[in-house]
Amino acid sequence: MYFLGWIEMKPVVRALALLSFALPALLAGPLTLTSHAQAGPLPSGSKLAVEIGGQKVITLSRAAVSTTKPEFTSITLAPGRGMEILQITANFPGKGNVDMLASPELAGAKKMLDADDDDFGDLGYRLGAAFLAPYPNRIRGKLAADGKTLTTAWQGHTITLPANNIGKLATAERHAMHGLILKARTDELIVKKVNGGEQAVGVIHGGDFSGHWLSKTDLVITITLSADAVDASIVAHNVGSEAEPMALAWHPYFNLPSGDRSQTKVLIPASTTAEVDGYDNVFPTGKILPVKGTRFDLSAPGGKALGAEFFDDNWSHLDWKGGAATVEVIDPAAHYGVKIEGLSPEIKTIQMYAPPTKSFVAIEHQYNFGDPFGKEWGSADTGMVTLKPGQSTKWHVRLKVFVP
Predict the structure, then answer these.
(1) Can you give the pTM of this predicted structure?
(2) HSE-CB of 116 using CA atoms within 13 angstroms
(3) Phi/psi at 5 (nearest 5 deg)?
(4) List of domains in the chain
(5) DSSP string, 208-227
(6) What is the C-alpha separation between 199 and 187, in angstroms, rounded?
(7) Tens of pLDDT along 229-271?
(8) What is the pLDDT at residue 7?
(9) Sheet of 157-162, strand order
């Protein structure tokens, strides 16, 4: 249930709708609202439920039952930080639970996000799996004199964004990065039992994202845990009075259990990649290049070992099979594999960030190319969806685990 009509209701009507939805479940016992949601793992010595971003961390969980195949067992979420997924665990028979995301223990995550983070919430996309809206990746523009914001244009409208990222070199250009919900609170959160697992649904009333976007937007984020899959979806609904651009994605750091990144294999089903100006700015040049015969060709069955190669690149012209654009991350030394299935046709590109010195691979199924409003693209479709008032768009990704 994605509440697409429901989120447009007036507050009183919406409250009655929520009550009518929740009351049967409350009487039966399986539904939990935010204030009573199951707490995630607690820091050592803590007796209280952990809060991050001013809202309680919640954990969806289920017991593994198979003795022959891996199963998902838990998802830990931070509703106070845009429903960010802090951790996912899967049980592998004979090994026990494996942490699927590169993320610190809950106490460390709380310190990063509540104590160490900046005003934009940038540390949110440096652990776990942050959701990105209304744009992922980089956006360039004219920098304000104070260096804090930049302006870009879309269909004759000026958009002013936080200039929250910059490279390390002297030639680096400050730009906008990874959307506007990294510090967003989640409203109307519902946690309930579903067949074989649990589900969390939350609404982020983004509005105009503190004046940084056009129109007004509600985001409905749904995360479902079952034995065979983890499903994550975002429905963006234009509840304002004018058209708006929209792109959705997430930023998951997939853990490599063996710690041996060089032998890790990745399969990306794509035939082209976007040329960039280098790995500091990582700005697209506007050229889309074939991957065949290059180090960017990761399309062979079983994937290609990463070796010592650095990647922060964007693949496109995806090969959809069985209704999905499926990336595989395989850690042969750990007998561990994960499939990341992009299920929404609006997903046009896949970004991979894979530094050789780290034991993770970030795989981002996203709507758009980097710098989607940039002049370098000319009249090309850069993947941004136009939402007219009342329209919506859905991003949906599914995870599966396997033994390679």
Answers:
(1) 0.88
(2) 11
(3) -75, -35
(4) 6-41+48-402 (2.70.98.10)
(5) TTTTTSSS-EEEEEEEEE-S
(6) 15
(7) 999 999 999 999 999 999 999 999 999 999 999 999 999 999 9
(8) 38
(9) 142-143, 149-154, 157-162
